[in-house]
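Q: Hi! First time doing this. I have a protein sequence and I read that you can turn it into a structure. Is that right? Here it is:
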Amino acid sequence: MTSTSPQQLGPAHLGALGTEVGRPEYDRAEVRAGIVHFGVGGFHRAHQAMYLDRLMNDGKALDWGICGVGVLPQDRRMADVMAAQDGLYTLVVKHPDGTLEPRVIGSVVDYLFAPDDPEAVLARMADPATRIVSLTITEGGYNVHQVTGELDTSDPALAADLEPGATPGSVFGFVVEALARRRAAGVAPFTLMSCDNIPGNGHVAKKMLTAFARLKDPELAGWIEREVRFPNSMVDRITPVTTDADKAALAERFGIDDGWPVVCEPFTQWVLEDEFGGDRPPYEEVGVQLVQDVEPYELMKLRLLNASHQALCYLGYLAGYRYAHEVCQDKLFVDFLLTYMDDEGTPTLPPVPGVDLDRYKHQLIERFANPEVRDTLARLCAESSDRIPKWLLPVVREQLTAGRTIDRAALVVASWARYAEAVDEQGEPIEVVDRLRDKLVERAQHNHEDPLVFISDPDLFGDLAQDERFVQAYTSSLASLHERGARATLESFA
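A: Yes, that's right. Below is the predicted 3D structure, encoded as structure tokens:
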């Protein structure tokens, strides 16, 4: 607890921080950027940047500092905060008992806002000192067609980057142009490390980027396919949106005026395929699991944790809750989640080396129920069109093929359709946040007269609207949500 006025976070004030605040024990002047990272948001700063900061505090990886890059208009705010604080920010771990554990992270040593100076970004990426380019660009950032699995070039930024002589504006545009420059200069390619929540994220990144490159330069695409490494990874740490209350608590209790701190849960996990084209940081020395095959861990996380987030968020919101911890302190919802995980999610998983799945599932409920994290259901409900097809529908399809139950997963899809009607059970408006918002809401508002309208979109659901078992389970759940509401519908599953 501090009794002094809060000071703006920056290098000059690190020495004045209280002993309860962790800080870089290394000389940041000695840190050199070796990683260019696209998508410096809360998750990256709570996860990958934190692991590198740990290494640096052990006197290692000082040539693996991060140069962040923002390509979207809304990234300007991050650029401003990073410039004001010399890349420093506070990571606050929120324990269930109310304890806050703050640490100033120093591994981000530069930040470039690409629209202001695209050439500076390309020069940094083409520099031989850059050996890894990493991504947290969200599930939708890979431009994957949800049904065909091929590159979707309809995104305007992507289409613009395919014009002859275009200055890059998208992540794909920057990556491919930087690789072209390295190839022309005889510089070894960097490793492209995806850290997003999509199955086979490394495989997907490789497929989409080479498809994009092929449209620009087939010869370059062949070189990328042969020479560039794309390790798969599984990343996990619940990182809610930072609130004004979080900033105020940091200022009041620890004397830190931070323009954009990050809050997160205590749990963190990173499983990474040891498939790099050159050097890499010694991640394994700070708890990262380096493995030959990430897929079992990845499927476990996507189909249990991520799909369970979808299973609780729409139903919880419709039932009147607004935070994940509220839902997971309600036995009705907890029982539903555990039964989904046991009967529908788990049967689709291969063996997961070294993991007690039963313990993992109960640990998930404990993590979701952490009242200090205050993860909003609105955050979990956002961008569902990028999430449900990747996290939940594969479970539905595998269960259907095997002749096993899909009732709970079908209810989750129905709850999404009901949520997308944009009005809750009390008649209050719901702000649906999704890149396909208009199409989703327009379809959902016809749910009453045509119960199949929402799932009849082949771009999201493929041919599931033609599967009798799924249709029966889905329409039954949707009717129940309309007639009885979310809570009574869940009670019928108890």
